[in-house]
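From the pipeline queue, job 12 of 40. The input is one protein chain; the requested action is below.

Action: predict structure.
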Amino acid sequence: MSTLTVVQVGFGVTIQDLGRPGLSDMGLGAAGAADRGSAALANRMVGNAPDAAVLEALLGSVALRSDAHVLAAVTGAPCPVSIERADGRVHGAAAYEVLSLSPGDTVRIGLPEHRLRAYVAVRGGVAVGPVLGSRSWDSLAQLGPAPLRDGDVLPVGDRAGAWPVVDAVPPPRTPWADEPAVLDVLPGPRDDWFTPDWRGVLTGQEYTVSADSDRVGVRTTAAVPLERAVARELPSEGVETGALQVPPTGFPVLFLADHPVTGGYPVVAVLTPESVDRAAQLRPGDPLRFRVVRRRARH
């Protein structure tokens, strides 16, 4: 079996796949890739099965040495990428292109200027042992393959399908630096627990991502808090990925992949799947705005 050796880990790298849904009755959330769209794209670029495990690298900053001929791809945060050959020569590469690694090559992924999480896929997937059916690390439950450390050796599996038919794709155009990210939300289920002007407050101002954000949730601050119309306590109830739970501060917390399965604060709205991916790429200090959208009609 081919392997990848972790030469260097910077801000934190975990193994993620589609997660372990269906275990909420045991108190376990789904976990999985925080930006599912970027993880899926990385797998498609190397011809992997959709459930192949990838690496989720916080702020890039990881180096991996291959012991065999391996195809790889980097998506998500547009990081600088280079390949150091076994003879010491360094070749420029890029995110969003298929990378061909030979035995002894080291791929180095640097710090992106914008966005938060990069995804690294290798053809065949990262074949560490699954825990409860998934290779994902759950930071809240402390479950699954542990975050990577320097010197770890990762087996490369066989979760590949057809060979990729594209060698590069353009990175997504999303405003991050000079204008707020816009996150679409669907109202409810507890929007009636807030004052009638909640939509205007939610959508009429800019929010800032707080420094204590993580894979559990994106915490926000703003000038004007959301006000409750119902003051009594809410019994714990199930919450979904993308839920905007509003604690007593009045500033929403956007639940990401490692969120708890129940919550005791009202959920004013829920992000669309595309906006969950966008939220997963927000850094502390990044600005964002919310936009209420209508529910899509069922056909």
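Job complete. Residues 181-292 form a domain with the Cyclophilin fold (CATH 2.40.100.10).
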